[in-house]
User: Which sequence fits this backbone?
């Protein structure tokens, strides 16, 4: 028998090192991981056997068997699932096949403290957890439909061997040579307890092989097929962890039976924590499709819209044919109906939570709101319902607000729902474009998710009120009734540069800036800043355009409108100069400085910082009377 010696991929060695050096304080979970893999292997064979029943070779009673030997200190976990051939063993147990594990390593390497349990808690390292309790692991496996069995062995220290082997039937037997410290895992009571705690929901029997007769340790009926009243919270939680490869607790568990035209059982979970790969385009969801308890596929886009991709669980259909292939799932009318049903169910659960559990819902929104908002432009049929539960930050207080609450607070004469968007809440709050709104007591929504730039233009309205960016077009603030003290301020005409002098200043700024700006005009939205940039009414929103530029979706930022504040003392002084001498050299430098200042306020890079610095020096020198 030839034995091949191979080295683990470097990443696996690193992973093993972390696992062995006590990643999880709770060692019991190695058994959950191995039983979970065994049950997945049985699910896979059950599915393959639909088309090729001969793969079962007469062994259709799927089960996981636990064998112990407390003299040799050995625990074996055996299944009659799909099995692995030589290539599978090398691919699955010698490299990082699982993208989640690769991400895990990535995250650990970025963390200062490799024992950062919160971070690590989000990941499962599956098979490799066996090395937490064993000094050597042997995997004997035969793939269903093949004749040759293989044995994989390793002490987890950098190398493993693969050799031809003998084995009856197909499946996988994982033998753990336990270290003395973990002798307890050959004790029947320990295994009974662990299986009950972590693997009770597994749909196939987990059987402890004993001298005095075998004992099935788990319930062995798929959890979702049991009546709700017979499932405990703990069991729901464990199933969530197993099914979703998650380590948090679910925020909501939705277990229901859909009856009528289409019959299916849904067991859906809304997580508490954001899965680390939620924005990874390669990510597969964790909603599994079963047809009458036979596993068909996982993470099918046909089951849930992308804006609900954080939902995990199981859907078991009565109406699909058992031999449905994964390819046949696309455009399948039954599946489309199930998808609509699941979406409505989750939405109504969210609506109820928004009404009855404000705090819980706010936390959910904080974690998943940016994903749910994708539904506002992707899912026309549910747009209105999503818009009603959507929450926003605003210039009123630090909490969240709904659009309905915003509308209730709108000022007399205010026609639009105002918003400003950008990357950072605090920077947004300081935007000069907000000054006039603040002075009139008008609330402005503060949007910081990139997705906001996409749904805003396509949704356009809420309760017939237009959404309007405060960085685009006219502010229309004159129609809104001011708070009393502000009215009197407005009336103080001598506070403002005269029309004629302001016109002269605007004309000279326009000449100085040329095509660098689209227009220069008087602002009604500024109170304390001298100037700001605004996008054209018809143009793209300032921040939207910047975002598109970052993603190379537009080549050039288009010229903006420079608004100047006629009440600002600098503008007044410049206006006085302009009316006396339109060609005064200071006006040219001042125009360029004002534009650069407005760019800085926008958080934009200056096109020519050297000239900016030179001009600033010059003006400072003049100020010092040099
Ligand atoms: N008992 C088994 N029978 C057949 N294949 C198995 C078995 N155990 C593991 N494998 C294979 O090895 C792969 C790696 O297993 P591992 O537990 O490391 O990751 P995983 O199960 O894919 O993901 P996770 O650990 O996040 O649940 C599995 O995807 C599977 O293909």
Assistant:
């Amino acid at each position: 028998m030839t034995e091949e010696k191979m080295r683990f991929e470097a990443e696996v060695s690193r992973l093993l090192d972390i696992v062995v050096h006590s990643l999880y304080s709770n060692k019991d979970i190695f058994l959950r991981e191995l039983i979970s893999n065994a049950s997945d292997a049985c699910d896979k064979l059950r599915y393959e056997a639909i088309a090729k029943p001969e793969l079962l070779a007469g062994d259709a009673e799927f089960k996981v068997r636990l064998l112990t030997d407390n003299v040799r200190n050995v625990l074996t976990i055996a299944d009659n699932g799909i099995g692995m051939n030589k290539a599978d063993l090398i691919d699955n147990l010698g490299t990082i096949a699982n993208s989640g594990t690769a991400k895990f390593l990535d995250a650990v390497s970025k963390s200062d403290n490799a024992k950062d349990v919160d971070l690590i808690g989000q990941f499962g390292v599956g098979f490799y957890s066996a090395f937490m309790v064993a000094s050597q692991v042997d995997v004997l496996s035969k793939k269903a439909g093949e004749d040759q069995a293989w044995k994989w062995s390793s002490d987890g220290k950098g190398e493993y061997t693969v050799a031809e082997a003998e084995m009856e039937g197909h499946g996988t037997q994982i033998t753990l040579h336990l270290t003395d410290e973990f002798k307890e895992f050959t004790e029947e009571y320990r295994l009974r307890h662990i299986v009950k705690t972590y693997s009770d929901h597994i749909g196939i029997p987990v059987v402890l092989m004993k001298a005095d007769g075998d004992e099935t340790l788990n319930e062995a009926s798929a959890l979702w097929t049991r009546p709700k009243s017979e499932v405990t919270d703990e069991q729901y939680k464990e199933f969530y962890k197993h099914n979703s490869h998650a380590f948090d607790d679910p925020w909501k568990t939705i277990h229901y039976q859909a009856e009528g035209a289409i019959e299916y059982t849904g067991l859906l979970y809304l997580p508490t924590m954001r899965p680390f790969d939620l924005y990874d385009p390669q990510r597969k969801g964790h909603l599994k499709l079963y047809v009458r308890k036979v596993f068909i596929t996982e993470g099918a886009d046909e089951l849930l819209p992308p804006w609900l991709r954080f939902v995990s669980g199981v859907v078991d259909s009565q109406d699909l044919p058992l031999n449905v292939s994964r390819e046949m799932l696309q455009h399948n009318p039954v599946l489309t109906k199930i998808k609509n049903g699941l979406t409505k169910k989750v939405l109504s659960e969210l609506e109820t939570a928004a009404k009855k559990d404000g705090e819980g819902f706010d936390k959910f929104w904080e974690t998943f709101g940016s994903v749910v908002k994708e539904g506002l432009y992707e899912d026309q049929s549910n747009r209105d319902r999503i818009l009603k539960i959507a929450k926003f930050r605003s210039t009123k207080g630090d909490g969240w607000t709904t659009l309905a609450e915003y509308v209730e607070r709108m000022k007399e004469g205010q026609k639009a729902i105002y918003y400003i968007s950008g990357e950072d809440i605090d920077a947004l709050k300081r935007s000069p474009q907000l000054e006039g709104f603040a002075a009139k007591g008008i609330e402005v929504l503060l949007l910081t998710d990139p997705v906001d730039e996409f749904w805003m233009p396509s949704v356009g309205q809420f309760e017939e009120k237009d959404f309007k960016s405060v960085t685009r077009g006219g502010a229309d603030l004159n129609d809104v009734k001011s708070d009393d003290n502000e009215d009197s301020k407005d009336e103080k005409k001598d506070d403002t540069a005269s029309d004629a002098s302001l016109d002269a200043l605007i004309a000279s700024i326009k000449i100085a800036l040329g095509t660098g700006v689209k227009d220069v005009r008087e602002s009604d939205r500024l109170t304390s800043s001298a100037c700001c940039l605004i996008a054209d009414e018809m143009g793209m929103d300032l921040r939207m355009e910047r975002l598109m530029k970052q993603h190379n979706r537009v080549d050039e930022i288009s010229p903006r409108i420079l608004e100047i504040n006629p009440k600002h003392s600098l503008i007044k002084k410049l206006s006085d100069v302009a009316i006396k001498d339109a060609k005064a050299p200071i006006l040219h430098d001042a125009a360029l400085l004002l534009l650069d200042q407005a760019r800085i306020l926008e958080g934009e890079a200056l096109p020519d910082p050297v000239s900016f610095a030179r001009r600033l020096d010059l003006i400072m020198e003049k100020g010092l009377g040099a």
